[in-house]
Amino acid sequence: MIARFFLAGFDRRVALALIAVLAIGTVVPLLNLMLPASHVLHVPDYMVALIGKYLTFALLALSVDLVWGYCGILSLGHGAFFALGGYAMGMHLMREIGPRGVYGHPVLPDFMVFLNWKELPWYWHGFDQFWFAALMVVLAPGLLAFALGWFAFRSRVTGVYLSIITQAMTFALMLAFFRNDMGFGGNNGLTDFKDLLGFNLQAATTRAGLLAASSLALALGLLLASAIVGSRLGKVLVALRDAEGRARFLGYPVERYKLFVFTISAAMAGVAGALYVPQVGIINPGEFSPANSIEAVIWVALGGRGTLVGPLIGAGLVNYLKTYLTAAMPDAWLFALGGLFILVTLALPRGVLGLFDRDARRPRTAAVDPIPKAAE
Amino acid sequence: MSPKRSDMRMPYPRRILGQLLLWISLCLSGQAIADAASLDQAIRRLGQGGFDGTEKAIGELLASGDPRVVPILEALAAGSLQVRKADGAIFIARQEGGEARLIDPLTGEVAGAASPGTMERVRMNNRLRRVIEAARGALTLRSPDPAIRRQAADALFRRADPDARVALEAALAAEKDPAIARRMREALAVLTLAGAAEEAARLEAVAVLARRGDRESLAILAPLAARGEGELSRAAEAARQAIEHELRLWEIGQNVWYGVSLGSVLLLAAIGLAITFGVMGVINMAHGEMVMIGAYTTFVVQEVIRAHMPGLSDYSLAAALPLAFAVSGLLGIAVERGIIRYLYGRPLETLLATWGLSLVLQQAIRSAFGPTNKEVANPSWMSGAFEVGHLAITWNRLWIVLFALSLFALLMTLLRRSAFGLQMRAVTQNRAMAGSMGIRTPMVDALTFGLGSGIAGIAGVALSQIDNVSPNLGQGYIIDSFMVVVFGGVGNLWGTLVGALTLGIVNKMVEPHAGAVLGKIMVLVFIILFIQKRPRGLFALKGRAFET
Amino acid sequence: MGFSISLASRRLRQRLGAGLFGAALAGSAALAPAAMAQDTIKVGILHSLSGTMAISETTLKDVMLMLIEEQNRKGGVLGKKLEAVVVDPASNWPLFAEKARELIQKDKVAAVFGCWTSVSRKSVLPVFEELNNILFYPVQYEGEESSRNVFYTGAAPNQQAIPAVDYLRENEGVQRWVLAGTDYVYPRTTNKILETYLKSKGVKDEDILINYTPFGHADWQSIVAQIKRFGAAGKKTAVVSTINGDANVPFYKELANQGINAKDIPVVAFSVGEEELAGIDTKPLVGHLAAWNYFMSIDSPENADFIKKWQAFTKNAKRVTNDPMEAHYIGFNMWVKAVEKAGTTNPDAVIDALIGVAVPNLSGSYSAMMPNHHITKPVLIGEVQANGQFDIVWQTAGLVVGDEWSDYLPDSKNLIADWRKPLACGNFNVATGKCGGKD
Q1: What is the pLDDT, as a whole number, of residue B377?
Q2: Complete edge-to-edge strand list for the sheet that includes strand B90-96
Q3: Mean of the pLDDT values across residues B216-236?
Q4: Would the pTM of this model clear 0.90, i.e. be above it?
């Protein structure tokens, strides 16, 4: 039963992507750990951290694609779910430091000590347990998405209005987390982590393990997404993406479908954030910035919206280019990246993945115009 | 220079000042009574012993009662008093060509020229500036210029000096202007309350201050009221309560004004977007950059005018307006023809393309002008503030409010009354139909996008007056602009107007209670909740908007 | 070339007494040059060239390029040319960590000069400690940190904030204080330190107003009005501003328009320098203050020479210089000197060699690297002039040692940093005798 559910949406392309993701997750750590640094095929440490980061971004892109590509919800706030997952993990990592902080306080993180906090705020309790933090990684973004979706979908907020309230949400969260009074470290965020589950975060083995974990998470996410898309549920989603009113008239409880996918997608983004934080070593309110969420949408658009595999390619490609160009042409990389965005939009209307579609059918991404057309 | 420690005593010159004033108000003619040698010594000491030494020397100069010290103090305040490093002699320096011409401070005669590096300016700080201002304030109570007399009275109100009483009373007796006379009476009232006058006079002074009714009066009355007993204290308490009550009302008005002013800034930023996004449906992420380019155009115009026609500096904004409109507008048309027109029917992808465009434009400006802020000066008619009752209104904000509203009115007229406006509405409502009626839809599209971008450029001219002119300028406004347009109702210009003003006023009413950060968060939460209530914004389009 | 120390706390003086130079100068002469034969020595430059911080950081990249070019003209270091490796972390804090790792592991740089914001430094700090490299951090900051791998050439709070407040109390008779800042860790910590300090000087609670605003705050009407109200209570009032970069221009414009005059309510700022003023018409701001360790208007031959070179390098006769630029000037020269002393670019040797190195600063004295990895600097107070420059109205008699752990915060007053062996600890608790952060 379950196997059938998971394999329903499986096509050749997803299978290939799955294999590629898992291959990265096994080969890269091996090449990094087993081969000597002088070997041609050796993957240097900084590459491991980079690839691990790309994998978490790919998972974020996948979660955006699930709601945007298949459900027609253009979320400009998925960065918020990503960041919340990241903060949940970051809080655990802070608690793990314990008395090894610079002030040697047994419980309080350093930033609380030097801002004169006397005791741990209530919402920091429980994060010393990994299982609790892991639960919050999924629950915090999931609940937020559920609450927002519950109200918004029932009020039939759609299209660009929905996009803007998700943007308002992430913007408000950014400002809130910037406040030092919130107890999340303000602008500096959470940083200087020591270890996770007893593994030293600065060790090459831990980093290789995190990369493997990220690839596993991405593979599972891909599996889950393709299962959802391939199921009956997925068909309904596409129906309400393309004609929400008709789907509603046919008796489908549109809100519930949307709410389900939106919540799942947010939790997925949360997991991506949780894996991102130990690999880059910092989480701060900048992750909530609306520009980050827009960027995630751009990865999806660039790779190919509504294709599951496209977003992975988009996220990998854009971020690799960013890494490469910021070092290769630090003064002019924005020209290259911005130019690429314009070019892809004009030349590849169905994203990079569209290049590989031989059939000239109408794009699967049959765009729905969310904007009411009318003059003032 | 070594650190100077001075105790908090009343500055010496202040005590001397009263005697000088008395002396001047008796109108003795400008006969030098001071010993010329000692005066010369005092002038010399202006440049010795750091700030404390200068302050003491100013006191001695004032004490000499010699009118010739006035221009010396003026020069000191203006920073043109210099010490010759070689012998410590003091001169007034006047820059002429490449070298400084030295003028003897006492005789006013040219004493030679100085080559660079041989002179040192007599240093000033805020304390010395205050001392000189107080002296100047008292000296100018009888100035023929009413503005200067008013300043003088205000200066005395703020820095009550018992020794200035006689001069003040004399000036009040001679004062013809009732407004200035009132200010002088208020200054006298402060003196009365500070001194040991009899009860009746002090009660009278409390009444004068109660009529003035501002924060400064409050600060003077509060300690009197706090004494708690006696008729004077009761009167002060009553006055204090009345003033506080009135000021609270004024404060609400002040916050509304701040809100209107913030709202008009939001309106300016959003109004171009209301056309490109609201009317045309392009998710225009490069809108902020169009605003920024308008601001940079202003900068360039100012630089050119400053270099070639310095006399016209005050009018540079007027020249910048059409130019900014043209630059941003033409750029907008080029963008529409080059990129956007291939994307009609795929509005979401305009997000991707315009985001790329905004990155390119930011970097282009950064490469061309450098990453640092550019200075755009406020013209004199946009500087300063005036008061209406207890409402302080700054000129630049007032102009921006008026400008935003007239821009809005102009745009409405254009859309409602002109042929272009009609065509534009026709194309956006039903492109195919409009095309069959003979409207050249591609041209209308290009012009509409150009109009929206051009208006963004004009907004940039106004925003350059209150914000940084840097490559990041646009980024600061793009999110707010989208919020305003969507909150107001996409496609409805009236919605943008009302939305901008509402958000501005809500923000400024909340801010004093919750602080700036929480205030902004609350506005965002308000938008989220409001959209649940009205899922199509403030001014939803009526009609069959069901499936869009 | 002696330097004197004022305002140093008791334990700093003890620390200095412990034979600063002896220990440091002796170190590492025996270490052989790095085995790897390289044609050039690479120096990493980690400053944002795009995004919100580009406005401040791009200048620092240029200054580093100029210094490296100049050093190469003098023959480089250890007989090798220096090669600058420039990357753009794009004002994105995780990207700072990523780029730092790339610089060290991929480009194999010998040292990195970079960062501006505290969060970017916090982000790269674990990377530098893990990979054992050297970071020179050139910006005034909140203190409360001392890492073996980081050298802090900007001001600690005692090198900027406290002297500025003292100046206002003593010279302007200020009794009422507005502490206005952007809501992030530097203003929070600085204001906490100032609040404790002011209260220790007898300032009452109701005479202190603390106000925080978000980054890039553009609408200052309400807050300036509030300051005006607070200042109308009869006591001499001043504003201590830790408002960050971008928000300053609209803040000062609003101050000028609402008629807040330096004679009535002076504003002393810790983040406003010549570069920031270049974007404002300063005529209405004459008399407002800033506290720094360097001003462009300093009258010294070193400074004149530096300005001349800078303007020639940027081909712009109007380009201004500022305090963080001087910090890089000092830091770079210290690094060169330490590398020459150690005879190698090996980070361990250079880190040891750096302590005790003294190089000329631009105000005509010598700045030295202390065992706590902070440097000695003069503290200057300047008044804004109509031409966008500062007129120095006050300066400390001697140099001030950067105090990494503030004496005015209850949890840090017992901590000291001393990276000389055998202590080699960044947060040694003198009360418990333990080095924190170690099991």
Answers
A1: 82
A2: B110-114, B99-103, B90-96, B81-84, B119-121
A3: 78
A4: no
Residue A249 resides in a domain: yes
| CB < 8 Å to C234, chain B | 219-220, 222-223
The mean pLDDT of C284-290, rounded to a whole number, is 88
Average pLDDT, integer, range B369-385:
84
Q: Which of A298, A349, A372 sits opposite B491 (nearest CB)?
A: A372
Query: A4: exposed, middle or buried (C-beta count within 10 Å: 0-12, 13-18, 19+)?
Result: exposed
Band of residue B116 on the pLDDT scale cut at 50, 70, 90? low
The CA-atom distances, in angstroms, between B284 and each of A167, B147, B151, C286 are: 15, 50, 51, 41
A53 touches chain C (CB under 8 A): yes
Contact C221 B262 (CB under 8 A): yes
Would you call the peptide bond into A253 cis, given omega within 30 degrees of 0 as the criterion?
no
- More confident of the two residues B99 and B480: B480
pLDDT tens digit sequence for A226-248: 888 888 888 888 888 888 888 88
Q: Give the Cα separation of A126 and A49 in Å (integer).
A: 28
Q: What count of residues does chain A have?
A: 376
Position C416 pLDDT exceeds 90: no
- Chain C residue numbers with beta carbons less than 8 Å from the beta carbon of A187 are 117-119, 183-185, 215
Cβ-contact A326, A315 below 8 angstroms? no
Q: What is the pLDDT of residues A5-38, one digit of tens each?
A: 666 556 778 888 888 888 888 888 888 888 877 7
Class of domain C10-156+300-377: alpha beta
pLDDT of B222 reads 79
Q: Is residue A370 part of a domain?
A: no
Contact pairs from chain B to chain C, CB under 8 Å: 158
For C185, the closest of A44, A116, A186 (CB atoms) is A186
Between CA C204 and CA C198 the distance in angstroms is: 8
Quote the minimal CA–CA distance from C166 to chain B in Å. 10
Residue A68: closest C-alpha in chain B: B348
Q: Of A147, A101, A94, nearest to A125 (Cα)? A: A94
Nearest Cα neighbor of C392 from C289, C300, C316, C309 is: C289
Q: What value does the mean pLDDT take over residues B319-326?
A: 93
- Residue burial C37-75, b: 16+ Cβ < 10 Å; e: rest: eeeebbbbbbbbbbbbbbbbbbbbbbbbebbbeebbeee
Shortest CB distance from C219 goes to which of B3, B262, B471?
Answer: B262
Show which subunits contact B, needing at least 3 CB pairs below 8 angstroms: A, C
- Do residues C131 and C101 make contact, with C-beta atoms less than 8 angstroms apart? yes
pLDDT over threshold 60, residue A373? no
Q: What was the pLDDT predicted at C114?
A: 94
Fold (topology level) of C161-269: Rossmann fold (3.40.50)
Residue numbers of the domain that contains A21: 2-356
**Chain A residue with the nearest C-alpha to that of C217:** A175
Q: Does A114 touch chain C (CB under 8 A)?
A: yes
CA-wise closest residue to C189 among C156, C232, C224: C156
- In a domain, residue A363? The reply is no
With residue B334 as reference, give the H or E element that holds it: helix B316-338
Integer Cα distance of B492 and B275 in angstroms = 9
Lowest mean pLDDT among A201-215, B91-105, B456-470, C186-200: B91-105
Q: Among A46, A179, A192, whose Cβ lies nearest the Cβ of C122?
A: A192
Nearest-angstrom CA–CA distance, C182 and B307: 37
**β-bridge partners, A180:** none
Count CB pairs under 8 A between chains A and B. Answer: 173
Residue type, B442: P
The answer to whether residue A361 sits within a structural domain is no
Domain with CATH 3.40.50.2300 in chain C: 10-156+300-377, 161-269
Inter-chain touch C263–B129, beta carbons under 8 Å: yes
